[in-house]
Amino acid sequence: MPKDKFLWGGASAANQVEGAYKEGGRGLSNIDLLPFGEDRIAIAQGRKHYTEVPDDVFYPSHEAIDFYHHYKEDIALLAELGMTAYRFSISWSRIYPTGLETDPNEEGLQFYDSMIDELLKYNIEPIVTICHFDVPKGLMDECNSWKSRQMIDQYDKYATTLFKRFKGKVKYWITFNEINMILHKPFTGAGITINKDENREEVIYTAAHYEMVASALATKRLREIDSDAQIGCMLAAGDYYPYSSDPEDVRAAQVANQENFFFLDIQSRGEYPRWALNKFEKLGIQIDITEEDRSILRDNTVDFVSFSYYSSRTSKENTEGVDTNTGNAAGGVVNPYLERSEWGWMIDPTGLRIVMNTIWDRYQKPLFLVENGLGARDVVEEDGSIHDDYRIDYLKKHIDVIETTIKEDGIPLLGYTMWSAIDLVSSSGGQMSKRYGLIYVDRDDNGEGTNHRIKKDSYYWFKEMVEKSSVALVD
């Protein structure tokens, strides 16, 4: 595949599609401990321990959509769509079941070898996320996950194994999925539960620091092992708008944007922003930053910036009497100028152009939009068809904005991998009913169903869109 070809594809995460959570030598991960139901959010936010749930709760990730046994069928459907890229993650605990092993699990490596070969057979570029909300339980038990500096070496071992095994096959790597989610859902993002006697912000920013050092170290390793490949960071993106022109609201939005782009500042520029260091000092937050860490961060910035975009956010200094039910982990208030999805997310295609310009202006590195889509309830008609015009409308408006932003603003975008080509378990709520795919999977919120795959109307629309697309890379 030519390097200058714009990549059209879909995206997923191992813990949301693979299932087979005890097969192939795989160990448990943090998401395997995240139940469906009323306790899910409290555990995800690190406010409740995963053991504090009834014995009969349902864990959606354990079976998911059984991609582990359906991957050849599913990849063939991606190829028929005309997709030229597939972004997926590798399950850390398939490679190192507890995280503590010296040698990797060969059966796990063979699964991904076979999967990547299947993609390449159809000329589909594999884009691999090393860690997508995925921490082996063994590392949580042994060192409290990313609360510990030990995790840097464990991640280094894991990433190095992947780079050596898949050298020449994988040209695009992403170190951590939506790394900023650790601010909002530390258990989901990093396998962390915060004890009542701990300083929440200190725990989170310390863990974030260790993740960013690990990310920079992985960047260094890839350049040593496979200099032809590229590696990027990833953010759950969306600018915060001020609710009004009141300077207090403008300042609230500015602060929220600083906090959100904190991770990209370090991974793309190589150093901590001054506001963050001032904040730590003011609040008495002690971060374990060594001179060696500073050197690693400075010398190993990423090749590209990847990001997810579903909606923009809005900030207001005084939220009394204002609707704050945005449905989004990143918070904010409801923007009265925008439509909302069934789950309360703001629908804002223009916000995609805004955030693409924001990221490019800040970092001047190529961009990669690796998640964008609409969660909605789909209905299977008596004849087996699924008419998801609402999804087509959402995707079309955002893809039109991509084309405009590339052509008129000159923003270099490597590709677009929508979330998701196929229905999967929702990360936030654990539902199957919150569907994102172009391909329907017969499975419900309770894990019942045949796992039969059905093409939606959006499948045929996306296929035609890719065939006719004139989107190209910007030099």
TrEMBL record:
<dbReference type="InterPro" id="IPR018120">
    <property type="entry name" value="Glyco_hydro_1_AS"/>
</dbReference>
<comment type="similarity">
    <text>Belongs to the glycosyl hydrolase 1 family.</text>
</comment>
<protein>
    <submittedName>
        <fullName>6-phospho-beta-glucosidase</fullName>
    </submittedName>
</protein>
<keyword id="KW-0378">Hydrolase</keyword>
<dbReference type="GO" id="GO:0005829">
    <property type="term" value="C:cytosol"/>
</dbReference>
<dbReference type="GO" id="GO:0008422">
    <property type="term" value="F:beta-glucosidase activity"/>
</dbReference>
<dbReference type="InterPro" id="IPR033132">
    <property type="entry name" value="GH_1_N_CS"/>
</dbReference>
<dbReference type="InterPro" id="IPR017853">
    <property type="entry name" value="GH"/>
</dbReference>
<dbReference type="InterPro" id="IPR001360">
    <property type="entry name" value="Glyco_hydro_1"/>
</dbReference>
<dbReference type="GO" id="GO:0016052">
    <property type="term" value="P:carbohydrate catabolic process"/>
</dbReference>
<keyword id="KW-0326">Glycosidase</keyword>
<feature type="active site" description="Nucleophile">
    <location>
        <position position="371"/>
    </location>
</feature>
<dbReference type="Pfam" id="PF00232">
    <property type="entry name" value="Glyco_hydro_1"/>
</dbReference>
